[in-house]
Structure formats: structure tokens, C-alpha cells
Amino acid sequence: METEQKRFDSGDLPALRRILCEQGLLSRPDGSASWIQGDTSVLVGIYGPTEVKVSKEIYDKATFEVLLKPKIGLPGVYERSREQMIKKTCEAVVLGTLHPRSSITIVIQVVTDAGSLLSSCLNATCMGLVDAGLPMNSLFCGVTCALDADGNITLDPAMKQEKEARAVLTFAIDSAEKKILMSNTKGSCSVEELQQCIAASQRAADTIFQFYRDSAHRKYSKW
Amino acid sequence: MAAAGGFRTVEPLEYYRRFLKENCRPDGRELGEFRTTTVNVGSITTADGSALVKLGNTTVICGIKAEFAVPPVDSSNKGYIVPNVDLPLLCSSRFRPGPPGEEAQAASQFMADVIENSQVVMKEDLCIVDGKLAWVLYCDMICLDYDGNLLDACMCAFLAALKNVQLPAVSINEETGLAEVNLKEKTPLTIRKEPVAASFILFDSLLIVDPTAEEEDLATGTVTIVTDEEGKLCAVHKPGGSTLTGAKLQDCISRAVTRHKEVKKLLDKLIKSKKAK
Amino acid sequence: MAGLELLSEQGFRLDGRRAGELRQLRARMGVFAQADGSAYLEQGNTKALAVVYGPHELRGSRGKAPHAQALVNCQYSMATFSTAERKRRPHGDRASAEMSLHLKQTFEAALLTRLFPRSQIDIYVQILQADGGNYCAAVNAATLALLDAGIPMRDYVCACSAGFLEDTALADLNYVEEAAGGPQLALALLPQAQHIALLELNARLHQDHLPRVLDAATQACRHLHALLDRVVREHLRDAAALLGK
């Protein structure tokens, strides 16, 4: 059992797993972050804005590239589709128009997958982008909800809970208006359940954004 | 005419906004209107099931071929469904030669997710002999003409082709232990759920249904909702892009539910006319 | 004698055709909106789709491109569900690479490539259902697509296959006849001038028989020319009627 810490008091909702984050731990990339959520752990390196290949150059904005490296083996179709989601989320948030004709590369390495991987990747990416100092119009976070057979919502499910769940929904939520940036579902659910999950995710997002703020505060108050 | 064409090339965003101000789109549709959908099934006789779907100009052909395989070790009573979306060079000049691009791979994964989520066909139904023999359905979707909204067209082609599949009866010869196929006795698949997709683009906080390729390029985000016949959600797919409120998402869902009815009516009519023949 | 009788005593083939008879041809031009030219063609049960882009600026490496004429870029692919046995790779295998090369050679002979130096013409052919004569269907479909795109050519390119069995030359072989393994000839002809764009013979054939087989293929190509010409004229009439209003 992982140690669970009650991070917000929203009545009957179970809490998120323990979160740990370290920024700027790698020296070569322009920004980096390690994100641990329960037993799930990912590492992100951000390179950019830097020179872009002529064939990928976009004349009025930055070219994003996301590489998701699985723990073992080579990236496949599954990784490609996750890369696309993370890429399009970043494109919506990072002010790419400030860096036209340049590239921003995001490399995500999965260290351990113990559930809620996509949301962990999103959170790690956001922290990495902050560390790289790229201008963004808001922060974003990823929240995964699992719906069990009775329709109960488990936030931030572990691998076992994810497997037993009837549906697993992952959302990316922005910090400015708490709107949905990205959504991905596995399994089927009713419309009401979807709305409940969105509401729960939005509440959980507050906790994560508070965590972002606390960690940034702690980092910069050291000096 | 020539001036409008020039304006369209130089200022595509402004050109499009002028249309939206009048509540219509460059191709004459309203914001919530789908393009004309036509479906044709069973045109490829070498496939076990096939369908051609035209959504406006977007054309997707889906061919399903069934082959034998050994069931997976961890679930010996299941068969396989392997979807693949191909965007060949001929469908648009925007694609480059080489291995499948990001969009094709993302679409393949989306199809695989929806098949898994919706349980459109129970994989147990594809098992022939427990632990020994099962069907594997290779569902290849080829885009022949690319004009946006690939996912809806693929989903529709896949479902129509699946309804068209006829699997031969298979018996195991006791003496030799080999499978014998009886091509005269063919049965259709049991289809448990009927997932139908509806895609939207986000443009200046407007929701626009069934985008063309041109509209997709201008949009700041896309949403695809897949519902089954009970109105349950099989997928809410929003790969990033600009933000959306829960209420707006609700709008998408209710539009997707009506779209499901339209497509189901179309497919039912088609199957009926096919049977009558 | 093998189980199948490919040619009956009365001179009929398996599908009921006579020796020199073609399979039914159905074709449509301008099937797709965003391509510069497109055509769909059925020869019996063989179904082919051809799409043409260009002439447009050169893509990819400029090194290998000829500088005084257009580069003809062909890709031949077969849908995975087009054959009885599922194909693993739609294109990129050796057979399709050879076919792509044959198409390129055929159309380099027919297109007026010197009119478009430093540019590229793409011809993409997709076989949706294969029942023999894939190369021929691909060439005929591509001809219609090129005409639809309005790219100048010396002449139509008509292609047809021919085989030789029991002292008889057979035109337009289907899959069963092809698979029987007899001699098989593919001919791509520019019919007006009677110029041969491509000629390929598989399996052994006595040279005394070659003129007869070639003759059968030439005849078949001439017939195809008439059929394709009718398709083009009808398409033009329809297009003109639309413009007229």
C-alpha cells in the first residue's frame, strides 16, 4: 500500500496519492523535472527554443515535438497517440508565437508505471516547461479518474484500481479557468458520470496547482 | 470570384470568420450540419467484410479479413481484432512517403481504444476452440480521399464493414486435429454495441461540426465523441487544443447522440436493402 | 491434366469468355475532389484506383531529378484485403517496387515530360481488389487519371495481358488463368502510333508463338483504347453540360 495523504477536504472523495517533484535535476536539457505520483514516476527533459529542421519549420510559431519513451522496448503506436495528446496540450498552453521558426522538444522517460501514467506525464511536462522558463498562458495538470462497477470515482488510481475499473478517464485542466484542455477515456460511462468525473478532476486540479505553487515557492525561497 | 479566392489564400482565418459571422460555412453548411454521408457495403469480394464511406469528400474504405490464430496465453477464450488506419500518399498531397505518420498512428490507436472500450464485438465470440484456435479480424481502413474528419469516416466504415462480415463455419476434424472450413455455411458476426463518432472543431469559442481539412487546419482544437445506441459514452477524445467547459462538452455529447441516430438509420436502411436482395 | 479445364473444347474459358474477349470494363473519371486527377477502373473483378498530383515543384532530393524534364514518381500499392490471402505490406515489398518501376517506365514513355522541367508528376495507384491483370488495370486507370488531370500525353496508354494455352492465345487473363503458370505477356501500347511502351513476358514461350500472343494483346489494347476513349468522351460531355449551364 502506498502512503496516501489527504490533500484536500472534499467530503467523500478519496485523496490523490503522494506527490513528489524535483525540478532542474538534469544539467543538459534547458528544463527538466522528475515527477512521482504514488509509485508512478516519470522524468522529463525540455530542449528549446532552439534551431529547427527546415522541413518542420513553421513560419509563425514554434514547432513542438514530444517523445515518450516507455520503460522497456521501443515506442509504438500507443506511445505515438499519447505523444500527440501531450503535444497538442502543450501547443495550446505555451505561447509558441513568441518563438517562431524554432523547435521545442519534450522528452518524457517513464521510470515506473503504477497507474495514472498519462496524467503523471502531463504534470511532469508542465513542471518541466516551468523549469525551462517558457512563456505560457496558464499552467496545466493531468488528473485520472477511475469509475468502478458501482459508479464510485477513484481519483489518481493505482495500476490495480485502473485494471479493475469499468472506465478510466484522464483530463488535462488549465489553471486559469479550470477548463478541459485534453480528454481521453477508456471504457464506457454515462454522460452524468462523465460530468461528475470532470467536476472531481477540477477539484483535484486545485490541489495539484497548489502543489505547483508550493514547490516553486520552496525552490525560489532557498536563495 | 478571383478576388474571393485570393482573399481565401492570403487571409484564411479572416475569410473563415466572415462566413461564421453569417452563421454559415464556406461550403454552405450551417455550423451544426454534417456533410452528406453515403455508405456502400460488400463491394470488395476478396474481403470477408467491406464498406466504403463517403463523408462529403472524405472517403474511407474498410476491408476486414479473418484469419486463424492461436488465442493469447492469458485469455485462452478470446480472439483478436486488429484495426489499422492507413493514410496513403494518394489521399492527399499533405502526406509524405515513409512509415505511417503521426496522424495515421493516432487514428489507429483511437480505433483500437474504441473497439476495446465499446466491446462492439465480444472477443469471446471470435474463439473457435478454447486455447487452440480463434479468429483474428484484420480491419484495414484506407483513406482514399482526405478532406477532414477522418475519425468519423473510419468509425462509420468500420461499423458498416463489421455488419457485412460473414464468417464461415469451422469444425475440427477429430482424426487429423486440423480445422476444416465450410465455406457454404456462413454466419454474420454478433454485434453487441454500435459505436458512432461525431467530431467537432473549436474555433473562436464556437463549436463546429464535421470539419473539412481546411477547417481542421484553422481550428485551435478538436473533440471526438463516440456514443453507443444507449447514449453511453465510448470515448471522449480531445487531444489537447484550446480549452472547453463541461457545459460545452455537454453540447457536443447531445449533438453526438443525434448523430448516432442519423447514422444508425442510414446503416439499418442499407442492411435491410441488402437483405432484401 | 490438372483439375481445372481452363479452355473447354468449345473454346470457352472458365468465366465463359472466348479466347480474345475482354472482361467487362467499367470506369469513372474525376472521382475525388482534392486530387489533380483521379479515376476508378474495374476490369472484371480487378478494381484499381489511380490518383495524379502535379505537375508541382520537386519534393525530396533534387539530386536524382532530371533537369530537362519532369520527374515521374509512381507508387503502386495493393490493399491488404485485395487478395485471397491477406497481404502483410500494402507497398514497399519487392513485387510492388517492381510494379512501381514498371509504371514509371511506362508513363515516362507516354508523358510529354519535357514540357515541365524541374517539376514532378505523382501517379499513385491503389489496387482495391486483385483478380489478375493488376499491372494492366493500374496503367489503364492511371491513363484516365492523367487525362483527368489534363497532363499532356503523346497518346492514351492502354495495357492488356495475354497468355498462351493449348495452341490458343488468350487475352486479358484473370487470376485463375494467371496462376496456372503458363506463359504470360503484359503489353502497354500507345495505340495510335502502335508504339510499345512496355512489354514483359513471363515463363517460356516458343518464339514461333510470340507473334500470335503479341497480336492478341495488341488487339485487346485496341479494344481497350476504344472503351477508354468512350469513357473520356462521356466524362467530357457531362463536364461540358455542367459548365454550359
UniProtKB/TrEMBL annotation, chain A:
Gene3D superfamilies, A to Z: GHMP Kinase, N-terminal domain
Top-rank taxon, per record: Eukaryota
Keyword vocabulary terms for this entry: Cytoplasm, DNA-binding, Exosome, Nucleus, Phosphoprotein, rRNA processing
Chief location: cytoplasm
Pfam families, per database record: RNase_PH, RNase_PH_C
InterPro entries with a match to the protein in the record: ExoRNase_PH_dom1 (IPR001247), ExoRNase_PH_dom2 (IPR015847), ExoRNase_PH_dom2_sf (IPR036345), PNPase/RNase_PH_dom_sf (IPR027408), Ribosomal_Su5_D2-typ_SF (IPR020568), RNase_PH (IPR050080)
Name of the protein described by the UniProt record: Exosome complex component RRP46
Species the sequence originates in: Eublepharis macularius (Leopard gecko)
Gene label: EXOSC5
TrEMBL record, chain B:
GO BP terms in the entry: exonucleolytic trimming to generate mature 3'-end of 5.8S rRNA from tricistronic rRNA transcript (SSU-rRNA, 5.8S rRNA, LSU-rRNA); nuclear mRNA surveillance; nuclear polyadenylation-dependent rRNA catabolic process; rRNA catabolic process; TRAMP-dependent tRNA surveillance pathway; U1 snRNA 3'-end processing; U4 snRNA 3'-end processing; U5 snRNA 3'-end processing
Keywords: Acetylation, Cytoplasm, Exosome, Nucleus, RNA-binding, rRNA processing
Presence of keyword Nucleus: yes
InterPro entries: ExoRNase_PH_dom1, ExoRNase_PH_dom2, ExoRNase_PH_dom2_sf, Exosome_comp_Rrp42_subfam, PNPase/RNase_PH_dom_sf, Ribosomal_Su5_D2-typ_SF, Rrp43
Gene Ontology cellular component annotations, sorted alphabetically: cytoplasmic exosome (RNase complex); nuclear exosome (RNase complex); nucleolus
GO molecular function, one term: mRNA 3'-UTR AU-rich region binding
SUPFAM superfamilies, per database record: Ribonuclease PH domain 2-like (SSF55666), Ribosomal protein S5 domain 2-like (SSF54211)
Segments forming domain Exoribonuclease phosphorolytic: 33-168, 195-257
Subcellular location: Cytoplasm; Nucleus, Nucleolus
Record bears the keyword Cytoplasm: yes
Taxonomy, superkingdom: Eukaryota
Assigned protein family: Belongs to the RNase PH family.
Protein name, as recorded: Exosome complex component RRP43
Originating species: Eublepharis macularius (Leopard gecko)
Gene: EXOSC8
Automatic annotation (TrEMBL), chain C:
Gene3D superfamilies: GHMP Kinase, N-terminal domain
Domain (Exoribonuclease phosphorolytic): residue spans on this chain: 21-152, 155-219
Keywords from the UniProt entry: Acetylation, Cytoplasm, Exosome, Nucleus, RNA-binding, rRNA processing
Any one biological process term the GO annotation gives: poly(A)-dependent snoRNA 3'-end processing
Keyword Chaperone: no
SUPFAM superfamilies: Ribonuclease PH domain 2-like (SSF55666), Ribosomal protein S5 domain 2-like (SSF54211)
CDD domains: RNase_PH_RRP41
Primary location recorded for the protein, binned into one broad class: cytoplasm
Subcellular locations according to the entry: Cytoplasm; Nucleus, Nucleolus; Nucleus, Nucleoplasm
Keyword Iron appears in the UniProt entry: no
Top-level taxonomic group: Eukaryota
Pfam short name (any one): RNase_PH_C
GO molecular function: RNA binding
Cellular component terms (Gene Ontology): cytoplasmic exosome (RNase complex); nuclear exosome (RNase complex); nucleolus; nucleoplasm
Assembly, per entry: Component of the RNA exosome core complex (Exo-9), composed of EXOSC1, EXOSC2, EXOSC3, EXOSC4, EXOSC5, EXOSC6, EXOSC7, EXOSC8 and EXOSC9; within the complex interacts with EXOSC2, EXOSC7 and EXOSC9. The catalytically inactive RNA exosome core complex (Exo-9) associates with the catalytic subunit EXOSC10/RRP6. Exo-9 may associate with DIS3 to form the nucleolar exosome complex, or DIS3L to form the cytoplasmic exosome complex.
UniProt family annotation: Belongs to the RNase PH family.
Protein name in UniProt: Exosome complex component RRP41
Species per Swiss-Prot/TrEMBL record: Eublepharis macularius
